[in-house]
Design a protein that fits this description.
This protein has three helices and 23 strands. It is mostly beta strands and 334 residues long.
Length: 334
């Protein structure tokens, strides 16, 4: 079995040397047949199927901000079955001779992607850490280091040995390292500062929920949009009340926005924050004024680019992100 990345294309290819008129692939998600793809075919014709985009529709991530109860994060079970048929449109008797690449394959899908330079059909390897917080010498081992505020516990994700779930390994508030699978992850603690810490959670390139902390200055504002019209307030006697609005507002909407700054970080955070910028699902773990409790607020990153920084050019490296909350200030869900 394999853990596959459903934000990037996923292919199965097959060929049959025997006589046939069609080839069929049935896609089964979590025990139910949901798609059937049929192609006309002839002997020795290679047939290619792409199915990641169809399967990704069945991924649902309901993140609340708490890792408790979230681990393990199971992938969706995907079973693809390819058969050849003597008749057109998947009819007629099944052809079982001379088939290469057919049959049933079971995989587990995650809301993950691969980079172009990694090539096609790149799996998420079992027992590998599913974060990019590492340095690596050419041809050498990866050295993982994460940055966490003082007196703060956390979790580090990795793909389990069955390649069907991401497991989150917890570390304590005073830990300086944690062993995850066969790797040691170093934990560097941020120094105390005068600003409120803003934890940002996002689905990274491996499909795992990753938390990064923005510890420097943050600014929050509200943006209001309104329409208005000049209404008639004159009465039938030719008088009007000066307390009535002659220019009337309507359709007022508002959205809260925030700008956050990271602490000073090493160069490999260019990759980490690129994944944040490319993530489809991002949350800020902040306290709501209305409820006075911390919760994972869905947000939309508004940055459109990220300039890669280096210690040679920039000396001290920090990053700025802007986002808006993924809902209107006024509750208007209908």
């Amino acid at each position: 079995m394999a853990a596959i990345r459903l934000r990037s294309p996923r292919y199965r290819n097959t060929v049959c040397t025997a006589t046939h008129l069609s080839v069929k692939m049935v896609i089964n998600i979590s025990g139910s047949d949901v798609y059937t793809i049929i192609k006309d075919s002839v002997a020795d014709q290679k047939n290619l199927f792409e199915y990641a985009e169809l399967c990704r529709d069945y991924i649902s991530i309901n993140w609340t901000g708490s890792y408790s109860g979230w681990s393990p994060q199971s992938g969706i079970a995907i079973r693809t079955t390819i058969t050849y048929h003597a008749g057109a449109n998947g009819t007629g008797s099944a052809v079982t001779t001379g088939v290469t690449g057919g049959g049933t394959v079971t995989q587990y899908g995650f809301d993950a992607y691969s980079d172009y330079v990694e090539g096609a059909n790149e799996d998420i390897m079992d027992e590998d850490l599913t974060i990019s917080n590492y340095t690596q010498a050419t041809g050498g081992a990866k050295t993982y280091t994460i940055y966490v505020p003082k007196n703060t516990s956390g979790n580090v994700p990795y793909m389990n040995s069955n390649a069907d779930a991401i497991v989150y390994v917890a570390f304590a508030t005073n830990a300086t390292s944690v062993t995850v699978s066969a790797d040691t992850v170093n934990i560097v603690r941020y120094h105390c500062n005068k600003y409120d810490v803003i934890p940002i959670d996002f689905v990274n390139k491996f499909g795992a929920i990753q938390r990064e902390y923005f510890t420097l200055k943050s600014v929050e504002n509200v943006k209001v949009n309104r329409e208005n019209f000049k209404r008639n307030i004159i009465s039938s006697t030719g008088t009007y009340t000066i307390n009535k609005h002659n220019i009337q507002n309507f359709n007022i909407t508002a959205n809260e926005e925030m700008t956050v700054n990271s602490d000073y970080l090493p160069e490999y955070y260019n990759q980490v924050f690129t994944e944040l910028l490319l993530s489809n699902q991002v949350w800020a773990y902040i306290k709501s004024f209305s409820t006075n409790s911390f919760t994972a607020i869905p947000i939309n990153i508004t940055n459109s680019n990220l300039t890669y920084k280096t210690q040679v050019n920039d000396r001290l490296i920090n990053f700025t992100f802007s986002f808006k909350k993924s809902f209107d200030k006024i509750q208007n869900v209908r």
